[in-house]
Amino acid sequence: MSRYRGPRSRVIRRLKNLPGFLGKNKTSNLGEFRVVTDQSASRKISQFCVRLEAKQRLRFNYGLTERQLLKYVRIARRARGSTGQVLLQLLEMRLDNVIFHLGMASTIPAARQLVNHRHILVNNRIVDIPSYRCKPKDLITIRNRPTSYNALRVKSPGGDKTPDHLTISLSEDNKPVGLVNCIANRESVNLNINELLVVEYYSRKA
């Protein structure tokens, strides 16, 4: 299981708000009161540093390792269309990210834990791979057992605005049911990032 176990405050202070890392309704003010010295204010930020920060924001928001992100970049390069947009589509269609956007989990790491512990059904089949790529018309539900509903820990899934490519509803027995309508588009990404910087960072590796 790919999981970041280091200090969270340090990542939040350096990379600012990460919806998948913190949660949709949480923002960080850790970096607002940092004292800026004359030396740091006059220092020029290199283009490599800008691209590195964009790559790190994308990696930590979706909870990926360096190897996983590089693999997604290589897949996006071989696909048709803009490499940056294809990269974001691949990440948005991951099962853990879809569960997060449906409101079944407060963060992407929490959604990954639900998947790893075999609480999630895709088309009535257990899927325990967080990187599973969801497809249009996929039906996402919770396993019919008490431990799965206790692990959900969300009183009202879909409370926030759900992206257009997803639909959340309740079944007759008041159980959350998620539906993938179509492939995610650029507007579905709630992370403030320039994906072209990430592609440029990996231009020599991919």
UniProtKB/TrEMBL annotation:
<dbReference type="InterPro" id="IPR001912">
    <property type="entry name" value="Ribosomal_uS4_N"/>
</dbReference>
<dbReference type="InterPro" id="IPR002942">
    <property type="entry name" value="S4_RNA-bd"/>
</dbReference>
<dbReference type="GO" id="GO:0015935">
    <property type="term" value="C:small ribosomal subunit"/>
</dbReference>
<protein>
    <recommendedName>
        <fullName>Small ribosomal subunit protein uS4c</fullName>
    </recommendedName>
</protein>
<dbReference type="GO" id="GO:0003735">
    <property type="term" value="F:structural constituent of ribosome"/>
</dbReference>
<dbReference type="Pfam" id="PF00163">
    <property type="entry name" value="Ribosomal_S4"/>
</dbReference>
<comment type="subunit">
    <text>Part of the 30S ribosomal subunit. Contacts protein S5. The interaction surface between S4 and S5 is involved in control of translational fidelity.</text>
</comment>
<dbReference type="InterPro" id="IPR005709">
    <property type="entry name" value="Ribosomal_uS4_bac-type"/>
</dbReference>
<feature type="domain" description="Small ribosomal subunit protein uS4 N-terminal">
    <location>
        <begin position="3"/>
        <end position="92"/>
    </location>
</feature>
<dbReference type="GO" id="GO:0019843">
    <property type="term" value="F:rRNA binding"/>
</dbReference>
<keyword id="KW-0687">Ribonucleoprotein</keyword>
<dbReference type="GO" id="GO:0042274">
    <property type="term" value="P:ribosomal small subunit biogenesis"/>
</dbReference>
<dbReference type="InterPro" id="IPR022801">
    <property type="entry name" value="Ribosomal_uS4"/>
</dbReference>
<keyword id="KW-0689">Ribosomal protein</keyword>
<keyword id="KW-0699">rRNA-binding</keyword>
<feature type="domain" description="RNA-binding S4">
    <location>
        <begin position="93"/>
        <end position="157"/>
    </location>
</feature>
<dbReference type="GO" id="GO:0009507">
    <property type="term" value="C:chloroplast"/>
</dbReference>
<dbReference type="Pfam" id="PF01479">
    <property type="entry name" value="S4"/>
</dbReference>
<keyword id="KW-0150">Chloroplast</keyword>
<comment type="function">
    <text>One of the primary rRNA binding proteins, it binds directly to 16S rRNA where it nucleates assembly of the body of the 30S subunit.</text>
</comment>
<comment type="function">
    <text>With S5 and S12 plays an important role in translational accuracy.</text>
</comment>
<dbReference type="InterPro" id="IPR036986">
    <property type="entry name" value="S4_RNA-bd_sf"/>
</dbReference>
<keyword id="KW-0694">RNA-binding</keyword>
<dbReference type="GO" id="GO:0006412">
    <property type="term" value="P:translation"/>
</dbReference>
<comment type="similarity">
    <text>Belongs to the universal ribosomal protein uS4 family.</text>
</comment>
<keyword id="KW-0934">Plastid</keyword>
